[in-house]
Queue: 3 jobs
Job 1
Amino acid sequence: MKASSLNPVLRQDRYSSVAIALHWLLGLALVLMFVLGVYMADLPFSPWRLKLYNWHKWAGISFLLLSVLRLLWRLTHRPPALPSAIAQAMPGWQTRAYHATHHLLYALFFVVPLVGWAYSSAAGFPIVWFGQIALPDWVPADKALAELIKPLHKLSAVALMSLAGLHIAAALKHHWIDRDALLQRMLPGQRSS
């Protein structure tokens, strides 16, 4: 659907190009890192597994930095409110779920990589971002602590992917069932007129 055919209210309530780019970049990175994490977790110890772990850690730190950028952008560039017609049509529980999901997603954007960093530090494997920048250890090396942290990283990553799945399902519901054009506010390549 072209932006010119969108409801005029939705054309005015589109997210900024920067917000849209960060949304889709972080979404893609999230899926790729999760798939990589699941794949590498059960590999036997090998140089290939070590390489994948380094890539995963580099991606995690990059994700964390992009999340900081996204949060700063959101704090300094207020996102558009839900169009009033859509907000009024949504039952109260959906509105609460909408806000809770967004807040939890933002929290987990930080929790997952920070817990992963803590696990790497506790396990005694420092992070050297892209093989160039040595990052400080988040916690002291301690194998017992690492064993406590490891499941927290997995649990928080699964929670993040589950919420992302819920977010996607809600967006598709708005697009295919409600047909309210809410999704167009976040699609790239559509200009407001």
Job 2
Amino acid sequence: MSDTLVDGSCAAFAGRLAARTSVPGGGGAIAYAGALAAALGSMAGEFTIGKARYARYQDDLERMLGELADVRERLLGLVDGDARAFAPLAAAYALPKDDPTRADAIELATKGATKVPLQVMEETCRAIDLLEEMEEKCSAMLVADVGCGAALAEAALEGAGISVYVNTHNLRDREFADDAEGRSERMLQTFSPKAREVSRRVMARVRGRDQIG
């Protein structure tokens, strides 16, 4: 077995995701989707950089490629981060129901589990900003990949939001819960429409409503 969930093949990851095991689960899948979104942005940049037609964007492309690589690596790390965060939560729920420490253990573990999807959202927001810029500055031949990346990023962001809310739903510490939910909601309201607009524009272009090339 691989040391981490993302070290194996795509087929192995999908197989583990489909199995009757707790990890990877939705949290790991959405982090992986966000990483793939960033990777598609990188692909568009790699095929554009060095082309004379886009020389005016050379510095921007180099910067974006560096940032996208960072986002991708962080999100891949969060695939396993989500699995690690689930372990104490599973252990807490496994405590006997008459154990006086059980409720506090669940509360603490739930707070820990909430932090990972918030991190996934933050990194995915970075990816969305970069995909929006890449749409403008990459080779027209790669714009479809940027659109696919934006669609994946929107799904990752929405999915991470679901993970935040499923964790905060039963928290007794409503100050912590309200803060986490507020952060999540602000990202959803700002970046989901942005990602959707990128994919919408790309769809219009590839369906012939706007010129490609």
Job 3
Amino acid sequence: MAITDWPESERPRERLLAHGAGALSDAELLALFLRVGVKGASAVDLARTLLKRFGSLERLFAAGRAEFSEIPGMGDAKYAQLQAVLEMARRALREGMAAGDALASPRAVRDYLRLALGGLPHEVFMVLLLDAQNRLIAAEELFRGTLTQTSVHPREVVKLALSQNAAGAILAHNHPSGVAEPSRADEALTQALKQALALVDVRLLDHFIVAGQAEPLSFAEKGLI
């Protein structure tokens, strides 16, 4: 049955307008993005298929073009639309951090990092660079792959901080395993980067580990910086 045949009070768009986006399920929100279904399946049915295939919105958002397009009814057009929506969300969060003290808005930092790193199948190391007022200057992905002191080069982090005239830095990387606890290698790397940045008067303010849908772990809150 097409969504247009549903009672008006049960249609996702009407429910959103009446009660707000928070009242909708993941499948209903995704259905509004998809707009139409495929033969024999409504947009909500298709949304449920996508969520079942990927397991969560987070993993769906991190899917590559080829994997996304394997789902009947999906393709380059929908993939491009989804990437545009995600990039707009990331830019909106970056704008918020650039406009004010990023440390005064830890939720915005965590939300941005989860959107940027959550669900990725490989490890990614990012650096957020801040000015003297803790406003975001830049957010850069520097390395991919298993993170060690040999794979993440302190000189590259320092070089980036100097090029942006940064006063502070926040490090972040993801754990595709879904376990947010820092390893000894993570702790050793953090201390090495803290010392390297201190040599050029850049403060290391925090290091976050993003792991699936769990709350990103803060090294500062754990007393590890």
